[in-house]
Amino acid sequence: MAEIIMPQADADFLLQMEKVAADDQRRIFPDFGGNLEVPLISRNQRETFSLDISRKRIALTTKYQVRGRQVVVLARLDFGAPHRNPDDSEIGVPHLHLYREGFGDKWAYPVPVGMLCDLGNAWQCLLDFMRYCNVVEEPKIIRGLFA
């Protein structure tokens, strides 16, 4: 599949756009080994987004990401392993992938100071990530046993 190239200004605008739950459906925060895709929409209902939650079983890692225009990863928060950027620099764990024109989501950055309140709390990290991505009305996600 060909890489989708979006102008950086468009990606930045989409990430900053206020997002709300696209429906009232209640979803369960996934346990280890589970995934969840939550539809989001802009307040003006012109743009759709997805909040993806992925929790691995073996490595006990978690990933949160927000996609715009169905396939463009605007932001992803990874807790799994360090990441090597295209310039060969290594970014530790956790790290934040942000869309970068010409690279898509292949570029990672250190998590901004103060973005995450409690690294040991997966649920709080989800709330912090949604706030970073400007999800202003949280979707109905029920905390699981391991959240």
Concise overview:
The protein is mainly beta and 147 residues long. Helices cover 14% and strands 35% of the residues. The longest helix has 11 residues, at 122-132.
The residue-averaged pLDDT reads 89
- Could you state the order of secondary-structure elements as H and E? HEEEEEEEEEEHEE
User: Per the principal axes of the C-alpha atoms, what is the gross shape?
Assistant: globular
User: How are the strands of the largest sheet arranged?
Assistant: 10-9-6-5-4-3-1-11
The count of strands amounts to: 12
Q: If helices are DSSP runs of H or I spanning 4 or more residues, what is the number of helices?
A: 2
The major β-sheet equals:
8 strands, mixed
Please give the radius of gyration in angstroms: 15 Å
Distance between the termini: 34 Å
SS-derived structural category = mainly beta
Describe this structure in words.
The protein has 147 residues and is mainly β. Helices cover 14% and strands 35% of the residues. An eight-stranded mixed β-sheet has the order 10-9-6-5-4-3-1-11. Strand 4 and strand 5 form a beta hairpin. It is globular.
